[in-house]
Amino acid sequence: KTSTPSMFRVEEYRNFFSELVPGLMKKGDVDIIYLPFKEKPAAFLLAFTYNGSFMLYMITNDSGISKYSPGRVILKLSIDSELSRRYGVYDFMRGAHGYKMRYANHLTRSYRIIVHRNILLFMLDSAMGFFEFRIKQDERLLNFFLRFEKWLRVF
After folding, report:
1. Considering only CA atoms, which of 100, 42, 120, 151 is closest in space to residue 90?
2. Residue-level pLDDT at 47
3. Average pLDDT of the segment spanning 95-103
4. Which residue from 71, 82, 7 is spatially nearest to 42, judged by alpha carbons?
5. Phi-psi region of 54 (alpha: psi -120 to 50; beta: other; left: phi over 0)
6. Can you tell me the distance from the alpha carbon of 29 to that of 25, in angstroms, rounded to the nearest whole number?
7. pLDDT above 60: residue 29
8. Is the dihedral of CA 101, 33, 69, 6 positive or negative?
9. Nearest CA-CA partner of 33 in 42, 41, 44, 23
10. How far apart are CA 53 and CA 92, in angstroms?
11. Are 150 and 120 in contact (CB under 8 A)?
């Protein structure tokens, strides 16, 4: 079990992915890989694919079998498979998660550039960035920020 609850507990995230993924799958721009264990899925990996890169978005696994590290297993298998089969780059994308450093052999800088038409949206976005870790740990706080952002977009 992780210290952060699943983002799929939040309805907005579920809706976002329910709308996004099928269209990307039709275009071939998303990969969903699963790892079987005793005839059941032990882990899933979601990645975006573009221009010769395999961009890891998320890994999720069955917490009941976490002692077998299914997340690590699916990650290692996908790195070996995707680099040898189709892609020249396996991109872990943004974030400072420790597992990324165990596998990476090259680091690049990412910049986030946002232009807001509304000063309140800018302030909300800045607050969310500053409190990002805390927001991800607290489902109520995340829901509050998402509802507040939706309300602000009306104005």
Report:
1. 100
2. 92
3. 77
4. 71
5. beta
6. 6
7. yes
8. positive
9. 44
10. 10
11. no
What end-to-end distance do the CA atoms of the chain give, in Å?
40
The predicted-structure confidence for 44-98, as pLDDT tens digits, reads as follows 999 998 888 899 988 888 888 888 889 899 999 999 888 887 888 888 888 777 7
Secondary structure of residue 114 in the 3-state scheme:
coil
3-state secondary structure 63-93: HHHHHHCHHHHHHHHHHHHHHHHCCCEEECC
Query: Could you tell me if 79 and 116 are in contact, meaning their C-beta atoms sit under 8 angstroms apart?
Result: no
Report the alpha-carbon distance of residue 61 to residue 41 in Å, rounded. Answer: 8
> pLDDT tens digits for 5-27?
666 777 888 888 888 888 888 88
- The tokens for 24 are 């990307």
Contact 8, 21 (CB under 8 A): no
In angstroms, the CA 83 to CA 99 distance is 18
Total residues found in the chain within this entry: 155
- H-helix or E-strand containing 138? none
pLDDT at 28 over 70: yes
